[in-house]
Design a protein that fits this description.
heterodimer; A: about 250 residues; mainly alpha; globular; B: about 325 residues; alpha/beta; 6-stranded mixed beta sheet; 4-stranded antiparallel beta sheet; 14 strands; about 35% helix; about 30% strand
Chain lengths: ~250, ~325
Amino acid sequence: MSRLPLIFKHYFRRNFSDPSGIIFFLLLPVGLIVLNMVGAIGFVNLAGESDSVDLAATATLLAAMFMVSFQFFSGDFIIHNIYNDLRGPISSRLYATPVTQRTFVIGCSLACWIFNVVQAVAIFTVASIFFDVYWGNPLIFIAVVLLTSIMCQLIGALIALTVSTRKVASGIMGGLGFFMMFLSGMLFVSFGDGPVATFITSYATPISLGYRAILFAGPILDDMSSAIFNVGILAALTVVLGGIVYLLGRRRSL
Amino acid sequence: MIASMKNVVKRYGDTVALDHLNLDIAEGEILGLLGPNGAGKTTAIKVLCGLINADAGEVQVFGQTQNMHNLKTRQQMGLVTQEITIFTDLSVSENLRYFGGLYGLSGAELSANVKEVLDFVELSEFAKKRPKTFSGGMQRRLNIACALVHKPKLVIMDEPTVGIDPQSRNHILESVKKIAQNGTTVIYTSHYMEEVQAISNRISIMDAGRTIAEGSLDELMGRIQYEDRIHLTAALPSDTLTEELKAISGVKHVVVSDNQYTIVSGADSGNVNRIMEIAQRNGGVTSFSEDKPNLEDVFLTLTGKCLRDEGEV
């Protein structure tokens, strides 16, 4: 683990000097959120409902949903790093060094995790300045960002360490993101108002847990104990996933 | 011995990549590991470097059992991979600093080693350039430098000259000799017998996952029966010249085509001087050459196969 700072620095520099990473994992999420919020606000204004609809609340729902969802889609960044280096031709050279696979994965994950945090901060800043989004209790917001971004790294690493091809791994990560959004009721599909449907949309995925924690911690749902409960479940899931990835982090045969 | 493999077996499904392979590597030598594609050379190297575990057998490096989880042995080993394994988005110097850092180097020691290895592979003036735009030969040199930056005691080079021009190849071969002169042990794999023949102190020939012959070049040559072939172009070809050549003791036959003569004798017949003397007496020669046996002949004799194309003979 003594080489961890070196490996972290290596991936951090490479990730932040990679224009495609900046475009796809930083500018695109912020751009899409801005586009959606401008569209939604414009739609409300066009319908002449601007007096009866709380525009800031609408913006909050959209911003929180996209912020948490993009955390998970960004798991593709660690998949990209792991496949390029630890499963690509250069892996022979890396594994010939006195460094464990686990150290490489952790160093790489930390660098990608910083990227996720920067992404969340960018979304937070743009949404707060231009759309008056209610992010609610800052501690809950920070906890959600930290936990979802860590979980995203763990899921990405788990997929990259177990799936043999990069395309399939990326497909799984993206598919998982959309599936979690679908289960969270974010893809315009209603599961109804029954208790099972409510449970699924509220607690079945990390996206819904994070999204609702932010809403609970603000004026929209205003229920701090539920916000803390959601954060607690997210934390527990993160610990379990962390344990699985740690065990899988042992070196595989080349 | 700095490293050894005893009865090492490695299977990939039904394919036996290493079939009770035995290999000893003495300190300070250049061991040439020669074999056709698919002979098991790369698998042997992966096992030796601890990149994969053997299914059976014993692998020792620096007196320790080598496996995928032994990190201590790796500290003194350098692997030059068959593929070019460098970061093309990092500069030459950044590549070397990263790999040096992975071996625990830092500060002044790392800077000094980077400078030294850059000089060694003659890439100093390109230190700040990214290798994306480099020629294959320059990338190969950086590939080698990345394995040497931590000054390992044992360097393993897996076909380091694949796909490069003759000039770069000669540069790399000269570099290998220099590395060994500095006391570093080198294992050099290739399916180019000229390379192995040119640089190795000892040669191990592999086929189908096994060592089929091992020894110095002379020892290996001594294991095969070969014929001396002398080719000459006579200035004045004549029947007298042909008859006199045929009459030399040890000459098996003489093939004549216009003014081209091929004289075939038994191994080490020592007939060169006598042939030249007769040819000079009969009008002189305009050209002369002698076929020497090489590792290709050794491999052919031992396996009935060619080194390069793996075709049955």
